């Protein structure tokens, strides 16, 4: 209950101040003249002015509001080390119980710092701000942080908190912890396939000095280097970029005796491999309607460097025209197929037949080129079934089918069972309908003794497209020369761009198009395991988390050729998966998360901010037992901690529930006061 006096003048303020001034002047004159009854006259005039000011007695019924204190509990992954979780839960329970015993104090508990794969580091002050967002500043009593001290969103100064109350840190963990880590100081984000990139790293030991460690470097799980380093020493390693896409490089140090955790002994660098230029050699046997289809496709791809030759004048063609009058370029066969053949990622023969241009020995070079990792695509027409077919050369050892004739009849191309699973042909637009929503072809080359199952079939179910592996290389055989009908839009055309581009990139070993592959993919807060296969079933996959925990997953088939399973990506760092044959790696979250860069507990990071607010930072455990300081409420002080105690700032906030007003000069009371004043003046004058 609060009491007071309020004024609601009956006249403008200016009039009231003039009246007060007049009374002061009159009082001064009377007092100077020592007139009789001066005091009574001045008192009567003052009562009149006071009546004009209209004073009232007020009474407020107030309900006190509780002060609010926040308890932020650190649930970051680094709290899983040692006995920190146990200490945290015990400290949380005892702290909340002690705070609830303080009368007029509301306690809010919030958990923060959980790994989500997106936030880098431990963020507690964001959670603190959210917990107190609906609390007026004059009701905040303070905050307690139960943490290991490794917090990465500490405000620059106390004013950034948004309230004036103490912040205390109760730090878990032991005082003399030791730990080892690998710190990457310089690493590229991408590299050209076939070239090398340099990674610089440092061996850091906390809590010890002068120790040595064995450091192992792996690329995609394969060991490429081993060396011994001393604590604090910086080193570098050159890494060959072997393929497109992520090249996962692991740098792992041997464990330190009695260290806190081995999880940060390993650093991960993901280098995206990109190709500078894909060199493609296109050899057209003779001009035909579909020749420009291949040329337009390859020229439109900015990543492809195309070399295209068309045989316009074979050696047997002699018409007497002098060589110096021909606007033709001699085919540099020796340069292309002997000296520089290994510089090409793909060689395409488009309706090419033996015309005496390429000696037989060069076809043997092409076969060796395929076995050692090269790629050949044959777009076949009637030439493939003729007596001058390239099948009748040493190249037959890598070609997947022998020609036996040509069928001339209209037909729709279909995906075979293998084609529905193969990444090159799976899900081609229009393939799901029957017949497929594509234009017809009118010619196919008949074959026999195919070494691989076709992915597309043509007339009478005969093979139309075969994709095969030979040694380290790959070969594609397209048994029709009418793909240009799709490109020209005949009968609404077909997905020629998707098909030809996928086929070309499969031949050039783009990882996304491998038939047998195991991949890991982050989807939101989940980790998706994808197994691409041509088989009817797949083996279970064992997934290993960054902390070393393993889980076996049974995959289920989604679309043909792809089997999937998901699990929560609950940890930051390098995840691994294997089915016993294939292996996949992926890094969840930042490449080298702040959460594991420094894991020893400390009071140093939070102490400056805590002391700036009048609070303190201290450890909760001495040895194995948890001992909290005494928690008290403090009403007026700038310091909220001392030997053996911590305090919260108790506020005097309240809310008005009701107001009572009694006007002094209203009604009979006011009339009596004024009449009394005039009567006293009259009596004094009568004397």
Number of domains: 5
Strand content: 35-45%
In which range does the helix fraction lie?
A: 10-25%
Radius of gyration: 44 Å
Q: What report would you give on this structure?
A:
This protein has 687 residues and is an alpha/beta fold. It has 5 domains: 2-63 and 656-686, no CATH class; 66-176 and 601-649, Rossmann fold (3-Layer(aba) Sandwich); 179-269, Immunoglobulins (Immunoglobulin-like, Sandwich); 279-507, Class I glutamine amidotransferase (GATase) domain (Rossmann fold, 3-Layer(aba) Sandwich), CATH 3.40.50; 517-588, Immunoglobulins (Immunoglobulin-like). Strands 16-15-17-18-24-23-22-20 form an 8-stranded mixed β-sheet. A 5-stranded parallel β-sheet has the order 4-3-5-6-33, with helices on both faces. Strands 8-14-13-10-11 form a 5-stranded mixed β-sheet, with no helix packed on it. It starts with a strand and ends with a helix.
Sequence-ordered SSE layout with sheet pairings:
Elements: E1 2-7, H1 13-33, H2 38-53, E2 55-64, E3 67-74, H3 84-100, E4 105-112, H4 125-131, E5 140-147, E6 167-171, E7 179-186, E8 190-192, E9 196-206, E10 212-219, E11 222-230, E12 234-240, E13 245-253, E14 266-274, E15 278-284, H5 291-299, E16 304-310, H6 333-339, E17 346-350, H7 360-371, E18 375-379, E19 402-411, E20 414-415, H8 417-421, E21 441-448, E22 456-457, E23 463-470, E24 473-478, H9 484-488, H10 496-507, E25 517-523, E26 526-532, E27 541-544, E28 550-553, E29 556-557, E30 562-568, E31 573-578, E32 583-588, H11 607-612, E33 617-619, E34 621-622, E35 625-626, E36 630-634, E37 641-642, E38 645-649, E39 654-663, H12 667-686
């Amino acid at each position: 209950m609060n009491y007071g006096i309020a004024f609601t003048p009956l006249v403008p303020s200016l009039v009231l101040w003039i009246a007060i001034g007049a009374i002061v002047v009159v009082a001064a004159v009377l007092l100077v003249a020592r007139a009789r009854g001066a005091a009574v006259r001045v008192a009567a005039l003052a009562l009149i002015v006071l009546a004009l000011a209209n004073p009232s007695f007020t009474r407020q019924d107030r309900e006190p509001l509780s002060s609010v204190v926040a308890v932020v509990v650190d649930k970051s992954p680094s709290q899983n080390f040692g006995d920190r979780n146990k200490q945290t839960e015990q400290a949380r329970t005892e702290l909340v119980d002690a705070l609830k015993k303080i009368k007029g104090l509301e306690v809010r508990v919030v958990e923060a710092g959980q790994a989500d794969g997106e936030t880098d580091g431990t963020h507690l002050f964001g959670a603190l701000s959210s917990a107190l967002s609906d609390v007026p500043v004059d009701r905040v009593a303070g905050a307690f942080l139960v943490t290991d001290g490794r917090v990465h969103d500490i405000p620059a100064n106390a004013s950034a908190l948004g309230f004036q109350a103490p912040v205390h840190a109760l730090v878990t963990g032991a005082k003399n912890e030791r730990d080892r880590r690998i710190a990457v100081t310089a690493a590229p984000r991408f590299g050209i396939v076939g070239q090398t990139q340099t990674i610089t790293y440092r061996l850091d030991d906390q809590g010890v000095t002068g120790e040595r460690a064995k450091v192992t470097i792996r690329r995609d799980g394969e060991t490429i280097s081993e060396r011994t380093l001393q604590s604090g020493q910086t080193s570098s390693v050159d890494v060959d970029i072997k393929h497109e896409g992520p090249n996962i490089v692991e740098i792992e140090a041997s464990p330190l005796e009695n260290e806190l955790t081995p999880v940060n002994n390993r650093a991960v660098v993901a280098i995206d491999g990109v190709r500078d230029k894909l060199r493609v050699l296109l050899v057209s046997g003779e001009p035909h309607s579909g020749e420009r289809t291949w040329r337009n496709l390859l020229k439109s791809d900015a990543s492809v460097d195309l070399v295209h030759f068309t045989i316009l004048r074979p050696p047997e063609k002699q018409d007497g025209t002098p060589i110096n009058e021909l606007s033709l370029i001699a085919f540099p066969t020796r340069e292309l197929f002997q000296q520089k053949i290994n510089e090409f990622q793909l060689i395409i023969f488009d309706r090419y037949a033996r015309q005496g241009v390429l000696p037989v020995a060069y076809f043997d070079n092409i076969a060796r080129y395929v076995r050692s990792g090269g790629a050949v695509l044959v777009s076949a027409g009637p030439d493939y079934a003729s007596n001058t077919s390239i099948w009748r050369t040493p190249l037959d050892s890598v070609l997947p089918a022998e020609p036996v004739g040509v069928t001339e009849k209209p037909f729709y191309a279909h995906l075979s069972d293998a084609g529905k699973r193969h990444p090159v042909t799976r899900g081609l637009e229009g393939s799901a309908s029957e017949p497929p929503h594509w234009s017809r072809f009118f010619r196919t080359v008949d074959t026999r003794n195919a070494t691989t199952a076709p992915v597309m079939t043509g007339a009478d179910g005969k093979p139309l497209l075969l994709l095969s592996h030979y040694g380290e290389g790959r070969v594609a055989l397209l048994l029709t020369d009418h793909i240009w009908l799709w490109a020209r839009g005949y009968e609404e055309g077909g997905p020629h761009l998707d098909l030809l581009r996928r086929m070309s990139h499969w031949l050039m070993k783009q990882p996304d198009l491998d038939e047998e592959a195991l991949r890991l993919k982050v989807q939101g807060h989940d980790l998706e395991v994808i197994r691409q296969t041509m088989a009817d079933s797949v083996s279970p996959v064992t997934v290993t988390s960054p902390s070393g925990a393993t889980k076996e997953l049974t995959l289920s088939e989604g679309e043909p050729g792809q089997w999937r399973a998901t699990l929560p990506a609950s940890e930051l760092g390098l995840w691994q998966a294997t089915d016993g044959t294939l292996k996949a790696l992926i890094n969840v979250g930042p490449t080298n998360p702040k959460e594991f860069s420094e894991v020893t507990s400390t009071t140093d990071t939070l102490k400056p901010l805590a002391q700036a607010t009048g609070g303190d930072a201290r450890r909760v455990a001495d040895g194995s037992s948890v001992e909290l300081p005494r928690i008290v409420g403090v009403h007026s002080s700038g310091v909220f901690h001392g030997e053996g105690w911590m305090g919260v700032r108790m506020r005097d906030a309240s809310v008005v529930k009701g107001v009572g007003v009694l006007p002094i000069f209203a009604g009979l009371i006011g009339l009596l006061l004024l009449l009394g004043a005039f009567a006293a003046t009259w009596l004094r004058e009568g004397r």
